[in-house]
Amino acid sequence: MEEKYENWTKEFMESWKQLDWKRTLETLDKNVEYYENPIDSPCKNFDEVINLWNVVAENQKDIEYKYKIVSFNEKTCIINWQMTRVMTKTKIKQEIDGIFQISLNEEGKCTFFKQWRFTR
Question: What top-level class would CATH report for the domain 2-119?
Answer without folding.
Answer: alpha beta
